[in-house]
TrEMBL record:
This is NADP-dependent malic enzyme. Residues 166-402 form the Malic enzyme NAD-binding domain. Keywords: Multifunctional enzyme, Oxidoreductase. Residues 21-154 form the Malic enzyme N-terminal domain. Pfam families: malic, Malic_M, PTA_PTB. SMART domains: malic, Malic_M. It comes from the Bacteria. It comes from Nannocystis bainbridge. In the C-terminal section; belongs to the phosphate acetyltransferase and butyryltransferase family. Gene3D superfamilies: 3.40.50.10950, Isocitrate/Isopropylmalate dehydrogenase-like (3.40.50.10750), Malic enzyme, N-terminal domain (3.40.50.10380), NAD(P)-binding Rossmann-like Domain (3.40.50.720).
């Protein structure tokens, strides 16, 4: 079996090379479809905003994207985990940083990799770029040059300059420290701190801890040669000089005796259990070396059960992750047009993160990670995918900027927080929620197309994320051959292969099918033949609870997949219909489309049935459904049998479900533009733009979601099959590997509810 690390590398290369190379692109924000558009966007129209900016430089924020544009800049001399690989090779890392800015805070980024022969040349290059950007994020620059570069740029530039390698870790670990001392009943002013490492991040963290209340004289720092003590000669220009101490300690082990806090920013394996045993009672251990800490989390906890332990790893509690900081710090700084990111703003960010961790954790966060979180030794810092971080940290930073006089505009904070809450749709967090929920109690999921490479690649992710235990149907030799040939990382024991032609239960399944379908023209011989067919066999495995759900359809038509599901598994008790639904992961929030895949013939009753099922489905995704019954008519504006059917369905659903917000018939643009809706129909029953869109027929729904996905670039998840008695997921033929993973997670969550005996969730089963 191939090495998992080599497979991860192969996957990473494919990820970056697939489709448009890299991870970022520039997208115009104005229409450029007519000659008039071009004349406004460029010559001669562009002269007008140019002259307005010339007269008043502040107008640049009104007429250009500068106020939301950050430069991620490096010379490639200290790329995390890779060292001095140069500016060109560092570009994938810088693009990745840009992706995080955009994903977590909707900040646009240009990544700039600078080939400079000296720090001063680098400074000149970056300083000359000030008119372009609203902020500068320095990245992966080696020490001690990074200190000099940042300081000089801060002196010369009138926009925020922030070296994340220094301050990001300082702010996030500082937030963790604020909470750790509370739990451990220690005082910042009396804390004895040992720092393992003396690079940019270590020095910045130590300085920041002083800003938080730690006494400088209580910090002992160790570099690769040992303790920075008075016995060693440190150059006057060396940033380490500030941390030279009068001490008899020589080694890291010496320094740790009686200490309260170990901050590790060095390398793996430097700290032993014996060293931890010499620390003070109730110690705090931040072993933050990446990718492997100075001492691993389980060993540290086993050695010192009374300790609070944090690492930089996502697979253990208390992850110190810089993504909790820089997107939101820049968001707050940009939104008040701060001229710098000062110490007060950084301290405000740390306190905001610490305070957020003490709040009750909303269900959406706990569900996203598959476990409950409560403030305490195992939860001292928020999770990276906590959607509250944006509107918690950015306002704190903005307020600090305004309070300290570095903000060029003033914001009303309550209105600002409300704006931030709507800045990013919650779709990513919601999908992550279901992945985490699935991983909390993985189920057996059968994949009839077990020899399809896309299924096998998806199963590699599914097993790595512990979402499910895949049961692959097909010829074992053929499946193993594909795994080897395509170097797919599926570890032995993480999956099973079942060949329906050889399976011991095939005969019994055939007899069951014959008994169920003999009055529908299915003979005993046909039953035996059908049980050799993988899709039918997989459905029978689900019906007989040998597995918990099925994911299929890549190589079958939709009707050929639905038919055996209905014949063998059947409809959920109480369901009037089955229907297909798509989740459209729009930036403004999730939209639920139905019916997109199943029902061809509609009447008012069918339409009401579909709307009810999709509305209930939307509720399981943590949103309040607002249902729009779509048509070419607005509230009776056109009298036609087709629009009348939609109006009748609306009235029927209102009588049946008075608890739902339902409106119609209406046109699609009116449904999603609440201001327009109110102007046309002031008495609308919806309290906001519709998020559940019910189409008047399958044609409309199918066409709409595909156009939105392909031309609008809106990610989709689906189709989700509503109304089945057991978890059945039908994939599209062009389904991506990521979509297969997401659909499998939804199937597992449905199986969890089914096993628990809960009322089946319409959105999933």
């Amino acid at each position: 079996m191939s090495n998992p690390r080599s497979n991860r590398g192969k996957d990473a290369l494919e990820f970056h090379a697939k489709g448009r190379p890299g991870k970022i692109q520039v997208v115009p924000t104005k229409p450029l479809t007519t000659q008039r558009d071009l004349s406004l966007a460029y010559s001669p129209g562009v002269a007008e905003p140019c002259m307005e900016i010339f007269k008043d430089p502040a107008e640049v924020y009104k007429y250009t994207a500068r106020g939301n544009l950050v430069a991620v800049i490096t010379d490639g001399t200290a790329v995390l985990g890779l060292g001095d690989i140069g500016p060109l090779a560092s570009k994938p890392v810088m693009e990745g940083k840009g992706v995080l800015f955009k994903k977590f805070a909707d900040i646009d980024v240009f990544d700039l990799e600078v080939k400079a022969t000296s720090p001063d040349q680098f400074i000149e290059c970056v300083a000359a770029l000030e008119p372009t950007f609203g902020g500068i994020n320095l990245e992966d620059i080696k020490a001690p040059e990074c200190f000099y570069i940042e300081e000089k740029l801060k002196q010369r530039m009138n926009i925020p300059v922030f070296h994340d390698d220094q301050h990001g870790t300082a702010i996030i670990s500082g937030a963790a420290l604020l909470n750790a001392v509370v739990i451990q009943k220690k005082s910042l002013a009396e804390l004895k701190v040992v720092v393992s490492g003396a690079g940019a991040s270590a020095i910045a963290c130590a300085k920041f801890y002083v800003s938080l209340g730690v006494k400088l004289e209580n910090i002992i720092m160790c570099d690769s040669k040992g303790v920075l003590s008075h016995k060693r000669k440190i150059e006057a220009s060396d940033p380490k000089l500030e941390f030279v101490r009068e001490t008899e300690a020589v080694t890291l082990a010496d320094a740790l005796v009686g200490s309260d806090l170990l901050l590790g920013l060095s390398r793996a394996g430097l700290v032993t259990p014996e060293m931890l045993l010499t620390m003070a009672p109730r110690p705090i251990i931040f072993a933050l070396a990446n990718p492997d800490p100075e001492i691993d989390y389980p060993t540290a906890k086993a050695t010192r059960p009374d300790a609070i332990v944090a690492t930089g790893r996502s697979d253990y509690n208390n992850q110190v992750n810089n993504v909790l900081g820089f997107p939101f710090i820049f968001r707050g700084a940009l939104d008040v047009r701060a001229t710098q990111i000062n110490e007060t703003m950084k301290v405000a960010a740390a306190h905001a993160l610490a305070e957020l961790a003490r709040k009750d954790v909303p269900q959406v966060v706990s569900a996203a990670y598959g476990e409950e979180f409560h403030f305490g030794p195992e939860y001292i810092i928020p999770k990276p995918f906590d959607p509250r971080v944006l509107h918690w940290v950015a306002p704190a930073v903005a307020k600090a900027a305004m309070d300290t006089g570095v903000a060029q505009i003033q914001l009303e904070l309550d209105a600002y927080i409300e704006r931030l809450q709507g800045l990013l749709g919650g779709s990513t967090a919601v999908m992550r929620k279901f992945v985490r929920m699935a991983a909390g109690a993985p189920k057996k999921i059968v994949f009839p197309e077990g020899d399809d490479p896309r299924i096998l690649k998806a199963c590699s992710i599914i097993t790595e994320e512990k979402i499910a235990r895949p049961i692959l149907l097909g010829d074992p030799q053929r499946i193993q051959q594909i795994i080897r040939e395509q170097d797919i990382d599926l570890l032995p024991g993480s999956y099973e292969i079942v060949d329906p032609r050889e399976d011991a239960d095939a005969s019994a399944y055939a007899e069951m099918l014959h008994r169920r379908r003999e009055r529908k023209g299915v003979t005993a011989e046909l039953s035996r033949l059908l049980m050799r067919e993988r899709n039918h066999f997989g459905m029978m495995m689900v019906a007989e609870r040998r597995v918990d759900g099925i994911v299929t359809g890549l190589n079958f038509s939709y009707s050929d997949t639905i038919r055996p599901a209905l014949q063998i598994i059947g409809i959920r008790p109480g369901a009037r219909k089955i229907c297909g639904m798509y989740l459209m992961l729009h930036k403004g929030g999730m939209l639920f489309f139905g019916d997109t895949t199943v029902n061809l013939d509609y009447d008012a009753t069918t339409l009401a049935d579909v709307a009810e099922m999709v509305a209930d489905a939307a509720g399981t995704f943590g949103v309040t459904p607002r249902v729009a019954m779509l048509s070419f008519s607005n509230f009776g504006s056109v009298r036609d049998p087709r629009s009348t059917m939609v109006a009748d369905a609306t009235a029927l659903l209102r009588r049946r479900r008075p608890d739902l917000e339902v409106e119609g018939e209406m046109q699609a643009n009116v449904a999603v533009d609440y201001t327009l809706m109110q102007s046309i129909f002031p008495s609308t029953q919806l309290t906001g733009p519709a998020n559940v869109l019910i189409f008047p027929n399958l044609e409309a729904g199918n066409v709409a979601y595909k156009l939105m996905r392909e031309l609008g670039g809106v990610p989709s998840v689906g189709p989700v099959l509503l109304g089945m008695a057991r978890p059945v997921t039908v994939l599209e033929r062009d389904c991506s590997v990521d979509n297969i993973v997401h659909m499998t997670a939804l199937t597992v969550v449905a199986a969890q509810k089914d096993e628990a005996g809960a009322t089946p969730t319409p959105a999933l089963v």
